[in-house]
């Protein structure tokens, strides 16, 4: 409302020589920063503004955001992703000659970003490694269990032919397919989490590489848990279905519990990752014009 009433406010400077765009970038207010896309050809002129310290707009966004702005996402790794998104977005619109321009202290925006985000980078690395390590342990246990189940099939093997006794039963095919899917998906998640653990953890890795690996690893782990429980339930149907039918049905119902528990316990992590990805993708897409 203020910007619509006083559009010339964008040219005003504070006591530090900063425009409203510089202050918005410094405090990570995307709705105000997006005004830069509404001022037409004068944008290039605003991008040349330097404050009393000789800092450009890119220097402003290279500084660590205030804690209350970082806290819009949880987890140091996801906060690092948000900070990198801001830096890269501002870098896109900067004039080429201003991208590596040093301030009065002789520090370039990239150097300032690395200096101010050292502690956040260390916390992000620690958070990512703890998460990947915990998930990798679970994936390894699942892979070990389903691998053993593949060679100790329910009902045993025919002594003469060596083939499973219930090979022609529909539930045996369910068991075989779900067990194979559990082994493949758990092995995949192990490799993904291993790649996270041995990653170089450079700043740019937190922008896309590490969050995407974590998402794919969790998806593979979730598929392996579902497949393992389907395999477990089908094994009970094969073994006990000719006796008391309520036993395998009851066991299959209980198998839903671990899946539900995994969803419930991992929901905060899923929400943080997807929300952070959405936030980073939508920050710089203004939904409506503020200057008319």
Automatic annotation (TrEMBL):
<feature type="domain" description="PGG">
    <location>
        <begin position="126"/>
        <end position="238"/>
    </location>
</feature>
<dbReference type="InterPro" id="IPR026961">
    <property type="entry name" value="PGG_dom"/>
</dbReference>
<feature type="transmembrane region" description="Helical">
    <location>
        <begin position="246"/>
        <end position="265"/>
    </location>
</feature>
<keyword id="KW-0472">Membrane</keyword>
<keyword id="KW-0812">Transmembrane</keyword>
<feature type="transmembrane region" description="Helical">
    <location>
        <begin position="171"/>
        <end position="202"/>
    </location>
</feature>
<feature type="transmembrane region" description="Helical">
    <location>
        <begin position="131"/>
        <end position="151"/>
    </location>
</feature>
<dbReference type="GO" id="GO:0016020">
    <property type="term" value="C:membrane"/>
</dbReference>
<dbReference type="Pfam" id="PF13962">
    <property type="entry name" value="PGG"/>
</dbReference>
<keyword id="KW-1133">Transmembrane helix</keyword>
<protein>
    <recommendedName>
        <fullName>PGG domain-containing protein</fullName>
    </recommendedName>
</protein>
<feature type="transmembrane region" description="Helical">
    <location>
        <begin position="214"/>
        <end position="240"/>
    </location>
</feature>
